[in-house]
Amino acid sequence: ELKVEQNPLFLSMQEGKNYTIYCNYSTTSDRLYWYRQDPGKSLESLFVLLSNGAVKQEGRLMASLDTKARLSTLHITAAVHDLSATYFCAVEAGNQFYFGTGTSLTVIP
Amino acid sequence: DTGVSQNPRHKITKRGQNVTFRCDPISEHNRLYWYRQTLGQGPEFLTYFQNEAQLEKSRLLSDRFSAERPKGSFSTLEIQRTEQGDSAMYLCASSLMERNYGYTFGSGTRLTVV
Question: Taking CB atoms and an 8 Å cutoff, what residues of chain B touch A102?
């Protein structure tokens, strides 16, 4: 079964700092997605990465995909409190997503 | 049509009762998915429809679970003889056949079995 591992699982960072969340997966796939989830809420799509070397940026978040290394990263630049949430990566294989365990991010003022 | 709609938002039921959830996808989306998410975990795949055809089911979908998508529009997920272990958030998502724009998730139905 395809496994998706995220690290760290928990991240506490100060406002203004930079950090990277890593997503490793265990099988070949060239479709990877990043989602944000606020407590008690559903999943909000952040990025869709569809090929090796894909890089996308939105505001303070930037995601990249290296299909050869089976690795995606979500980089946070100059964090602000509003970014506090749980972030999931999801690998598409066949007709389903395999989600990572999530990274719970808390940005401290 | 502003997104994927799920009803009810919350459901509390007694163990052994049957429950049914509804998902209305984005109207032009022909793919529909059900996922289950327990506290502190990522969502887990349950089943997938392409139009009205149920094309894939997870082994998580025991005999007590059934899903339908009549006419390829809305979908229902029924759980019979609920157990406490069924308590979770049930998420529905939809997408176009061409998935380059990703999937849109609904707000979910939170089930509590007491």
Answer: 40-42
